[in-house]
Amino acid sequence: FLVSGSRSSKTFKPKKNIPEGSHQYELLKHAEATLGSGNLRQAVMLPEGEDLNEWIAVNTVDFFNQINMLYGTITEFCTEASCPVMSAGPRYEYHWADGTNIKKPIKCSAPKYIDYLMTWVQDQLDDETLFPSKIGVPFPKNFMSVAKTILKRLFRVYAHIYHQHFDSVMRLQEEAHLNTSFKHFIFFVQEFNLIDRRELAPLQELIEKLGSKDR
Fold first, then answer.
1. Which of 215, 155, 141 is nearest to 188 (CA)?
2. Domain 23-212: CATH class, spelled out
3. Contacts with 171 (C-beta within 8 Å, 6 or more apart), sequence order
4. Binding residue per annotation — 108?
5. Which of 49, 80, 86, 104 is close enough to 94 for a disulfide, judged by CB 3.0 to 4.6 Å?
6. Does the model's pTM come out above 0.85?
7. For residue range 107-165, what is the model confidence (pLDDT) as tens digits?
8. Contact 122, 16 (CB under 8 A)
9. Annotated binding-site residue? 30
10. What is the Cα–Cα distance from 108 to 96, expressed in whole angstroms?
11. Residues in the chain where the model's pLDDT stays below 50
């Protein structure tokens, strides 16, 4: 019990806050307001006159927080024993590498993989040279490729939850929350072409279903 307790709290990262009063905070408020209208396709569009990098940065932080929270609700069901490999159904298995600490992809359990992944994402979001929070500080040239990698990896957490833990999500009555969060995420990455279609394959049917309901 103690082991799983300490592990799940480790995986559950602190929420990344966007400083109040900043332009990014205003953008986040705009995003929340348009989300409230219920039209997700419209909610993900770049607001007029806004910087694309900044819009992607704000939403990436928001998705990190959402996924962090969603995964946090099911950590007790996602254990070394129940999920010895990080997978999204029988056909898709993910091995972890971050290119710096772990250069060669390693096979690991889902909780370990997700801990690596969320820690890595948090490090990117906390890096002021990559995700500047101050007005007027330019985004680096490699910002878009970093953001794409973050979103590609965050998608894998959704894929794992849907394939391996959807019954737990149903029991917790969290499925509406999960579906809305995922739909928002997918519409966003589709709007700006941020994740390669091949990467989305584990949830392709669900993505098509969510999209067709919204046409």
1. 155
2. mainly alpha
3. none
4. no
5. 86
6. yes
7. 999 999 999 999 999 999 999 999 998 877 899 999 999 999 999 999 999 999 999 99
8. yes
9. no
10. 7
11. 1-11
